[in-house]
Amino acid sequence: MLPPGSTIGILGGGQLGRMTAMAAARLGYRTVVYAPETHSIAGDVAAAHVQGAYDDTTALARFATEVDVITYEFENVPEAAVAECTRHRPVRPGIRPIHLAQHRLREKEFFRKSGLGTAEYQRIANEDDIAAATALPGILKTCTDGYDGKGQIRVATQRELTAAWDRLHRRECILEALVDFQCEVSAIVARGLDGQACCFPIGLNDHRDGILRTTVVPCGLPPAVQMAAEQSGLQLAESLSLVGLVALEMFITRDGRVLANEMAPRPHNSGHWTIDACTTSQFEQLVRAICGLPLGAVDILAPSRMINLIGDEAKDWARFLAEPTARLHLYGKGKARPGRKMGHVTYVTPKV
Ligand code: AMP
To answer: How far is the CA of 149 from the centre of ligand 1 (A)?
Structure first.
């Protein structure tokens, strides 16, 4: 157990690291952020920001020995960087979750091995794979480096599949059958050092252009479907032997089946509502899990709707501040580029 007063190292300097650092500070922990940039929005609220490349083993070693435990705030942190940190301090949740999450095919195979349902999928790595493809109509996705809808092309026929694979530079891909879903949801699960696990209430997610737009909690789905979604998240955390947080994004099909789509072994955008509308926030829960503290309760304090502020939308901050049920969060990012997550607002409606 790492008591308050200990230091948490965070690989990555974005908004998830920033909100983790803020939650850690509330519980009396120090945080040190490691990121390649000279300045980071996580570093702005941490005790220190260490600038270093992810392949600079000397800088990583120095950072690791300055902290008591290490976590990461994005899943594309290079495995070798995590391996270097692991030589000096515990990294929670470790290398395996990112090894899986960085590769869509490995991830899907792991879901199946863990007993989770998924869409039908196939590996597309050569022309023979294309000729044998049956998961059509589907979505062709690059196995690596795709996020927020990037590196994905919808295809209906084998001819379209060939053209799409060319457009993706003939990289290793996964073809997933298009799921006719009624909605998308996510389960965020924390699992502690003692193996105790806890799932936050299921969030109902709406995506636009591949980017999360809103999350609504409670999700309003039948209790049996919610329980099945929670169970999938818990099963995943167990099968990863996770210490930390994992978010599992899922499709709910029209006949109520739960299909796992993607996981992220870190706090998740669809869990931001927990800061304002849950007894314990996902960020505090992560701190508790990686420091060996008991996990917090996850009761919904009030129904809520989280809306991402993307690009110029954050310029409306004065309007959100004036709305009595809106809780505004700005990430302190400089330039508002299209598609860039600048902040979020959570509308909280008190229970009556
Ligand atoms: P992903 O990057 O896999 O999370 O995909 C981004 C978004 O594309 C998802 O949130 C869905 O809205 C949509 N999508 C991805 N895969 C599928 C699928 N197999 N069937 C239907 N929609 C999908």
So the answer is: 7
When computed from its CA atoms, the radius of gyration of the chain, rounded to whole angstroms, is 20
User: What is the 344 CA–ligand 1 centroid distance (Å)?
Assistant: 22
Please tell us whether the domain made up of 120-177 is placed in CATH 3.30.70.100: no
The span from the CA of 154 to the CA of 143, in Å, is 15
| CATH superfamily name and code, 181-348 | ATP-grasp fold, B domain (3.30.470.20)
List the structure tokens of 318.
Answer: 């004065």
User: Cα(4) to centroid of ligand 1, in Å?
Assistant: 40
CATH topology classification for 7-91: Rossmann fold (3.40.50)
The tokens describing 131, both together, are 């000729």
Q: Which residues line ligand 1 (CB under 6 A)?
A: 119, 139, 149, 176, 178-179, 184, 207, 210, 249, 261-262
CA dihedral sign, ordered 287, 102, 307, 322: positive
147 CA: nearest ligand 1 atom:
2
Is the pLDDT reported for residue 352 higher than 80? no
Q: Whose CA is nearest to atom 1 of ligand 1?
A: 149
pLDDT, tens digit (0-9, with 9 covering 90-100), for 286-333: 999 999 999 999 999 999 999 999 999 999 999 999 999 999 999 999
The residue whose CA is least distant from atom 5 of ligand 1 is 149
